[in-house]
Amino acid sequence: MLKQKVDQLELKAKLFRGFGDVTRLSILEAILEEEKTVTEISEELDHSQSNISNHLSCLSECGLVKTRREGKNRFYSLGDRRVAKLLKQSDDILTDIAEGIYSCVNYKK
Amino acid sequence: MLKQKVDQLELKAKLFRGFGDVTRLSILEAILEEEKTVTEISEELDHSQSNISNHLSCLSECGLVKTRREGKNRFYSLGDRRVAKLLKQSDDILTDIAEGIYSCVNYKK
DNA sequence: AGAACATATCATTAATTGATGATATGTTAA
DNA sequence: TTAACATATCATCAATTAATGATATGTTCT
Prior knowledge:
Oligomer: homodimer
Number of helices of chain A: 5
CATH superfamily of chain A: Winged helix-like DNA-binding domain superfamily/Winged helix DNA-binding domain
Low-confidence stretches of chain A: none
CATH architecture of chain A: Orthogonal Bundle
CATH class of chain A: Mainly Alpha
Strand content of chain A: 5-15%
Shape of chain A: globular
Distance between the termini of chain A: 32 Å
Structural class of chain A: alpha+beta
Largest sheet of chain A: 3 strands, antiparallel
CATH topology of chain A: Arc Repressor Mutant, subunit A
Strand order of the largest sheet of chain A: 1-3-2
């Protein structure tokens, strides 16, 4: 395979791994409608501040969320409306193949 | 969060992790147009037979690919046209946010 | 039945990733 | 400037995942 092609695939894999974690998906859902601060998100999801912050910086670096500072706070929101769209479409697929995924043994959770 | 909601998110995370690996993405691309055998795929991608077979059984369990037997061979193809669609859409997103993902440090590859 | 081929499975190891707690940085208000 | 708050970063540890080699299963052909 061409190196360029491999690079492209690695990018794509990274993109999907951004979505491939329950905590990150929860974060994305939490800010789907409205921007929120780190503290709000970590309280809502009941995870530690540092955990959420780490995931957010991951999502942020990858362009999946954007942030804006206001006073002491940092508000996070979706970086691109297509992120929401992609999430939505995965729902549709899930509806049909949920059973299979549920029983998929290759990933614990 | 509701337990049901969490389950839903775990399914979704699993789905995305199915796509979140270069080898699996390569496999999906390799069979995007036409069904192929395990041997064909492993030669094309230059990975061991067992590695490809393992990934295929993962993809298969999750309903992302389907298989049909013909003699000694097993032909694999995409399990759902929406899988292709999802891959296609990730391309569009990537076009815009590739820079960010490229420099994203949270995943090695 | 036995040989050759195609694929699947399994155990082990190596690499990657997520969570946590401690600490650092930056901001506001007294 | 100091205290209080909000967020980020870092090191460490635990858990998860991918790759490999060896072996097992299943199929075809002679």
